[in-house]
Amino acid sequence: MSITDTSNVNIRSIETDRKISRGLSEQSFWLNLGPQHPATHGVLRILVRMDGERVVEAEPVIGYIHRGHERMGETRGYAQFFPNNSRMDYLGALTYNHGYCEAVEKLAGIEVPRRAVFIRTITSEFNRLSSHLLWLGAYLMDLGAFTPFIYIWEERELINDLLNHVTGSRLTYSYNRFGGVHKDIDDQFITGARAFIKRMRKRFKMYNRLVTGNVIFQARAKGVGAIPKQRAQAYGLTGPCLRACGVEYDIRKKEPYAVYSEVDFDIPTGQNGDAFDRYMVRFLEMEQSLRIIEQCLNRLPNGPYINDQAPRDLAPDPGEVFFAFESPRGQVNIFIKSDGTRIPYRMHWKNPSYTNLSILAELMRGQFIADVISIMGSFDLIIPEIDK
Amino acid sequence: MSANIAPGLWNWLAYWLSEEVLVAVVGLVIVIALITVNSIGLIYAELKVAAHVQRRPGPMEVGWHGWLQPVMDAVKLLGKELVTASAVNKPLFIVAPAIVILPLLVTFIVIPFGKTLIIRDLNMGLLLIFSFSALNVVGILVGGWASNNKYSLLGALRSVSQCVAYEIPILITVMSVIIMTHSLKMSEIIAAQDRVWFIVVQPLAAILYFVASTAETNRLPFDIPEAEGELVAGFHSEYSGMRFALFFLAEYTNMFIVAAVFTTLFLGGWRGPVLPGPIWFLIKVYALIFFVLVARWTFPRLRFDQLMTLAWKVMIPLAMVNLIVTALVMKLVQ
After folding, report:
1. Which residues of chain A does B55 touch, with a Cβ-Cβ cutoff of 8 Å?
2. Residue A20 pLDDT > 70
3. pLDDT at B63
4. Whether the predicted pLDDT of A3 surpasses 50
5. Same domain for B195 and B310?
6. CB count, 10 Å around CB of B9?
7. Same structural domain, B13 and B52
8. How many angstroms separate the CA of residue B249 from the nearest CA in chain A?
9. Is any Cβ of chain B less than 8 angstroms from the Cβ of A213?
10. How far is A381 from chain B (nearest CA, A)?
11. CB-based burial of residue B76 (10 Å sphere; 0-12 exposed, 13-18 middle, 19+ buried)?
């Protein structure tokens, strides 16, 4: 048996297919996981060669939702690119907005008021929290537990309501502006945020009882897809996937931007780099996000929330900028080169899901199909971010 | 010539109208009505249990608190097109849902709903139930194979190995009950529990039977044959409309049968104070099913090899120990 549809397979796949077809035993067969499959959470396609329940070889095939974001960035003004970067990582839209803003501000030398920086940090951390929450629910649903997926929507709904109140949207926010944010946060947001923090701390205990301590969950996640530290670094993993391997690397600590250098928070790390550690790292990161939000709310300065002097129609002086920020999935690198016009000359994004995806083929080899799903789920891949 | 045929025809008619056949026909009609009502009720229960476990109201629109929702779902499924993919093995594909549901109908012959409310109290009652409910898996295998879909095939293969693995602890635990009753007859098994229910005497067997039979019915946490996160919908990926509904019907009927057997073996069947026997029987059956429903909405799914390890390395040895201890005790008591 070979895959019937090869029209969309990239060149390497066809070569691998032929190579394997020659020595194909009767027991093994190709299975096309995706692009439409309940566990791929989007249009990721993974070609797996199966020997019964075991995966002999796995190969991610990407590009189904390629929209040419970088190219779009090179054909329109700086401010017009906001909606694009929130659609790259639709679950971490605010962190992307935030990062893009800081990159362009660094390029154009725009001053940002203190209050705006605090607001950006708060909203980014809320976004990280809601992204991790959705991951938690989706991952457990991949493992067959449907209930946590419904539970997380309660908190996500509260976060969405809060963010909706200030940003005006619920998923693909375009809230940040060069020189500040679009709208100031008010007392309603602050009291809501404080109530949310209080509530969320209680709910963590419930999640711990419901999920972390569950015997079946531990059996499904512990030791599954374990990545040695060296392999993780060799593949350039970032974010929770890297921290789960015991590497204490978080761009918020290593090269602090916004107010991360002023607030007190820890970087949770794991030891074995398995799916359970990735779960724990994200779980603990949510608690750290609450700490950051709480401190930011306590120290929130008064003043303007946007720099009125910042030009609406931006045309930075010729030059280039590199900026890195931490999205919920890991480090995002932005490179922008300006030739002095209103349109960027070159824009490049290095997205965390893309680099994290690269290790999947190696991890999935020799695993059970159920573990393949568990590994894929534990990586928290966002497909539009991979394909851009 | 007609004179020769007439008596033959008369005899034939007389045979078909005899009391025995009437009982069988009426019984069949009642059983079909029962499994339909049971499934609709259980679907409603599942929707509501899931909803309340997940802190949401569940269906509320159709009828009072949405009680007509499963009925409407059934009507919808009846109205759906029966899609037959071009690559399927047509005869097997069409016949598979029937193979799944028909053996389950047979098992109702010996289920004791009350002291006299039993279609036939056969000597080999328990054996009949286990042999026919084991046929269920043949339909799943045929359906998964005939679908000509890799996910369906994987689901069917998983289903077979799961059923084989869990059939063994079920039969061994049941054997330790049979040692105590000296009979496979349902009425005698219940009669043996007139002083104390077997769940008190045989707690380990009861737990083993409960877990293994949950696995038998492909319910979460043991639903790997249809694991939707991995195998899309497992063996019934390619089925639509009423064919899919028959698989669904079989699942809920199987749950009922498994709970009915548990009630008969360990909970004293229809025995209970005040209320009439059949009511007690149904209360016990649905209380058991409630546990299965709550378990489904609480736990993640086990992995295939973990499921097998549980069966072969934990449950079968435990069941064997239980059987040997029971046999020894019975011998010593005598």
Report:
1. 150-151, 154
2. no
3. 81
4. no
5. yes
6. 10
7. yes
8. 22
9. no
10. 16
11. exposed
* B162, two tokens: 């799961």
Which residue range is the domain that position B179 belongs to? 81-333
Q: Give yes or no for residue A382 having a pLDDT over 80.
A: yes
Position with higher pLDDT, A32 vs A344: A344
Mean pLDDT of chain B: 84
More reliable by pLDDT, B20 or A379: A379
Residues 6 or more apart whose Cβ sits within 8 Å of residue A215: none
**Smallest Cα–Cα separation from A192: which of A326, A293, A280?**
A293
Residue at a domain's end among B79, B97, B131? B79
Give the model's confidence band at A15: pLDDT under 50 very low, under 70 low, under 90 confident, else very high.
Answer: low
The verdict on B156 and B278 lying in the same domain is: yes
Model pLDDT for residues A43-85, shown as the tens digit of each residue: 888 888 887 778 888 888 888 888 888 899 899 888 888 888 8
Average confidence (pLDDT) over A197-218: 86
The CA distance from A41 to A63, in Å, is: 14
Predicted structure pTM score? 0.82
Question: Is residue A177 classed as helix, strand or coil in its secondary structure?
Answer: strand
Identify the CA nearest to A370 among candidates B237, B228, B152. B228
CA atoms of B287 and A100, how far apart (whole Å): 57
* B220 CA: distance to closest CA in chain A (Å): 8
* Residues B251 and B267 both lie in one domain: yes
CATH number, span A69-224+298-359+367-380? 1.10.645.10
Q: Best of A28, A54, A146 to disrupt the B interface by mutation (most B CBs within 10 Å)? A: A146
3-state secondary structure (DSSP) of residue B26:
helix
User: What is the mean pLDDT of the segment spanning A186-206?
Assistant: 89
- Give the minimum alpha-carbon distance from A157 to chain B in angstroms, rounded to a whole number: 14
Judging contacts by C-beta atoms under 8 Å, the chain A residues touching residue B227 are: 144, 370
Cα-to-chain-centroid distance, residue A108: 27
Q: Are residues A143 and B304, on separate chains, in Cβ contact within 8 Å?
A: no
Q: Does B311 touch chain A (CB under 8 A)?
A: no
Tell me whether residues B300 and A216 touch, CB distance under 8 A. Answer: yes
Contact status of B306 with chain A (Cβ, < 8 Å):
yes
Q: What are the structure tokens assigned to A246, written together?
A: 């015991």
Question: Is the domain of B67 the same as that of B86?
Answer: no
Nearest by CB to B230, from A32, A217, A370: name it.
Answer: A370
B313 interfacial to chain A (CB closer than 8 Å): no
Q: Within the 15-34 window of chain A, which residues sit less than 8 Å (CB to CB) from chain B?
A: 29, 31-32
The residue written with tokens 């029987």 in the block is B281
Of the residues B148, B303, B309, the best mutation for testing chain A's interface (the one with the most A CB atoms within 10 Å of its CB) is: B303
ipTM: 0.76
Interface of A with B in 40-59 (CB under 8 A): 50, 52-53
Residue at a domain's end among B79, B107, B123 = B79
For chain B, the domain total comes to: 2
Report residue B312 CA to chain centroid gap: 22
| d(C-alpha A192, C-alpha A185), whole Å | 11
On the question of pLDDT at A364 being above 80, the answer is yes
pLDDT > 90: what percent of chain A? 14
Q: What is the pLDDT of residues B100-156, one digit of tens each?
A: 888 888 888 888 887 777 777 788 888 888 888 888 888 888 888 888 888 888 888
Is the CB of residue A178 less than 8 Å from the CB of residue A108?
yes
* Average pLDDT value for residue range A185-189: 88
Judgement on whether residues B71 and B86 belong to the same structural domain of the protein: no
Contact B303 A140 (CB under 8 A): no
Q: And the tokens for A266?
A: 């820890």
Is the CB of A259 inside 8 Å of chain B's CB atoms? no
Domain check: are B251 and B302 in the same one? Answer: yes
d(CA B245, CA B242): 5
Tell me, yes or no, whether B98 and B158 share the same domain: yes
Residue range B168-195: mean pLDDT, rounded: 85
